[in-house]
Amino acid sequence: MKKLSLLSILLISATMLFAQGQNAALPRWGSGPPQNDNTGRVLSYAVVPVATTSTTATLSQTPKAFETVYTIPISHALSDSINSVFSYVGDRVVFIFTADASQRVVTFSGSMHTTGTVTVGANYTATITFRYLGGGAAATAGGGWVEVGRAVNTD
Fold it and tell me: 0.85 cut: is pTM over it?
């Protein structure tokens, strides 16, 4: 009887653990799945080079790490957005835009809340950082990806 009780408890615990799955309302660390880690030792980082062409006008990124850095060369006006399907609260995305020999303008759409467009000077670089506040791809001002900082090289 003891073995049956122990087996039942283990089965119920395992079922509850696997039923939780990914949850965009929880962070990648600390208080919930997926890692239950509060030390930061299991956080993932990624650098993703993005290729653009002279006809690329719209980009959509899908970050899958705690911090993802996108390096994007731009040769024309560009609109960028983020797909939040693999995102957790607290995730960070950094865009590094490098313009060609002309000044370029980058706009953001979807669940990205910014202070406005980014104008990158000819042959210069600009970075803009976003933090995910939860709420999924259709998040309003209370969630989604919120700009936390930008730096535009002007000299």
Answer: no
